[in-house]
Every structure is written in structure tokens, then in C-alpha cells.
Task: structure prediction
Amino acid sequence: MTGLEAFVLTVITASTPFLLAAIGELVVERSGVLNLGVEGMMVMGAVCGFGAAHLTGSPWLGVLAAILAGAAMALLFGFLTQILITNQVATGLSITLLGLGLSGLIGSNLVGLPGEKMQPLNVFGLNEMPILGTLVFGQDPLVYISILLTLGVAYFLYRTRAGLIVRAVGQSHQSAHSLGYKVIAVRLSCIVFGGCCAGLAGAYLSLSYTPQWIENMTAGRGWIALALVVFSTWMPGRLAIGAYLFGTVWILGLYAQAWGIGIPSQFLSSLPYLATIVALILISTNRRLSVVNTPASLGQGFVPDR
Result:
């Protein structure tokens, strides 16, 4: 494997958890809900996925457990924000803190145990091709799932009636309610989908990226996924590009140290978060970018007329 090929492969693996978590959050925010609990859902997916895979010996059962863990956390968030009408920002932060603490408790006996790694696909031996073989045909299944999810979400939002309803609810929940659409049901469905994607992103971390469990192994990736949704102005195609850009920045620090570049390692480790701040500043200073595609009802609770 050439140096360039290894670099591109590392970028793909580093970008996939961003893409998985962010594409789910994009659907959630398109419905008008701001879910700041992505980090907590990701880390719960990581620990439950690793634990299930270790107990059963099957990475796919680990993936299923991670998805269910993310969905359970999302249901809790949805119940609090959509049924009890709690503040979405405070509830999302609470879900993140709950996920970080609960995952540490669940995973206390899993640290240092061998993991069950998700194996790359081997499609008719095409991964043996030079250069493109490993990059295109030799990825693990979750990489392809992330791409298919992005394409599916784009089609769903802009080519289906259900996607139009989701966008209508996010744009004006009162108007959607007056037309007879079940706003709370639509939002709960989107929240659960976002939780499943966050759990899947966590499973990728503990079953593919680094097949082991380390406390707080998400390392702020959930927050970057949230920023990616804003960075992409709620467009799936732009989100995919942004995820791979941020993945590149994420691994540049590791490569810079390997190349012997004389930059402090602490600064290199902070590069992804600095890039997130810079991106948000650039968007906020451009009014056209800051308002385009933004769901008008984002973060607003909905109480149906009685």
C-alpha cells in the first residue's frame, strides 16, 4: 500500500463516524428538533456494541445492540422534549452527560478486553486490485452503509411525500398541524432515526475504527457532527463533503507527528475542534448562509391545540 493510498484510507475511516452521526442529526433538525444528545447516544452505541460483540462473538449483533442503545436514548430524549415539552437544549445536554456516565459504568469491566473487528468486504476479489481495490471495494460494511444512508436521506427529503412532510413540520409545525399532520409522531420518528444513526456511529468506533472499548472514546465527535449539520446548511450532499473534510483534519495531526513536523502535539490534537469553530464563525458572519435552509421551527416545542 502506497503512502497516499494509506492516507486516503485513513481519511475514509476517520470520516465515517462523522457522516453516520451527522446524517441522522440532519433529519432530526429538519423536523424542527435540536438534539444536543448525539455525543451521549454515540458513546452508548459504542459501549453496547462492543459489549454485545464481545459476548456473542458477532460484530453484527454488536451493531444491532448499538443501534438499539442509540434508539433507547433517543426515545428518552423524544419523550422528554415532545411529550413533556422540556427545553430541548437542556435535555440534550442532560442526555449527553447521562450517556457519558452510564457508558463508563457499563464499560468498566470491558476495558482491555479483545474486540470483534468488523471485517472488510471482499466483493469477487475486487479488493485485490491495485490502488482502487482497497479504497473502493475493500472497506468494511459500515462505510458503505454510511454512503447509502446519505443517498437515502437525500432521496427521502427531496423526492418523497414523507420527506416533504418532515420539512414542512420543521418549517412551521403549526401550519403542518393545521393541515392534519401529526407533528409529534413525525418528530419522534425522526428523533429515533437520529438515535439509531448515532448508535451506528458509536458501533463503527468500537467495532471497526479501533476494535476496543475506552471510556469516552467518542472524544467529542458527536459535537463535531452537530456542527457539521450547520456547516452543511442542512443539505445531505454538503454534509458528506464536510464530513470527509473534517475527517481529513482529524487525522492530519497524527500524520504531522509521523512526518516529524515540529508542531506541539497538543495543538495538532485540537485541530478538529479549531476547524469546527472557524467553520461556525464563517457561517455566522454570512447572513445568507446562516439563514438558508434553516428550519424555522428548529428548537421550538410544539403543544397541539386542545
